[in-house]
């Protein structure tokens, strides 16, 4: 993994891909008072929660191939991380947050902020 833009853009090593060998992972960068330290310009990207959802799905797939308690434990930790990040987002936005795992992983996300349980009232 190489940091291209701290906190926002990363180059990830790939396997069995002699043409490219790297994959770009881009996190959303917003600017303004709520995002101290983020210099303009803003740019689109994903969230940690979306990446965690992909990793959790991948661990389910791998565990179906070769079951392992280590894989299941790792998945549980990623699920908890997802839950904590969504809980943090709700607290920052002043929203109630009453979801428990695993239901939260399959909830739709807001198209404006990317979080669960937001009904689009997060951003103008």
Keywords:
3-stranded antiparallel β-sheet, 11% strand, alpha+beta, single chain, 124 residues, flat, 2 helices
Structural write-up:
This protein has two domains: 1-46, no CATH class; 47-124, no CATH class. With 124 residues, it is an alpha+beta fold. The chain is flat and about 45 Å long. The protein has a three-stranded antiparallel beta sheet, with no helix packed on it. 6% of the residues are buried. The model has no long low-confidence stretch (mean pLDDT 90). It has helices spanning 48-65, 69-93, and strands spanning 2-5, 9-13, 22-26. β2 and β3 form a beta hairpin.
Count, helices = 2
How many β-strand runs? 3
Helix content: 25-40%
Q: Taking all residues together, what is the mean pLDDT?
A: 90
Alpha-carbon distance between the two ends:
35 Å
Shape: flat
Main sheet, how many strands, which sense, barrel?
A: 3 strands, antiparallel
Helix/strand/pairing category: alpha+beta
| Sheet with the most strands: spatial strand order | 1-2-3
What's the number of structural domains?
2
Low-confidence stretches: none
């Amino acid at each position: 993994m190489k940091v291209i833009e701290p906190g926002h853009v990363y180059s990830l090593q790939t396997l069995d891909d002699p043409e490219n060998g790297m994959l770009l992972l881009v996190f959303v960068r917003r600017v303004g008072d709520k995002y101290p330290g983020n210099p303009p310009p803003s740019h689109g990207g994903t969230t940690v929660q979306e990446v965690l959802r992909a990793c959790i799905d991948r661990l389910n797939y791998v565990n179906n191939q070769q079951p392992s308690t280590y894989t299941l434990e790792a998945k549980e930790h990623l699920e908890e991380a997802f839950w904590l990040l969504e809980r943090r987002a709700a607290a920052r936005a002043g929203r109630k947050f009453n979801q428990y795992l695993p239901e939260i992983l399959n909830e739709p996300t807001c198209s404006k902020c990317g979080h669960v349980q937001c009904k689009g009232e997060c951003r103008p």
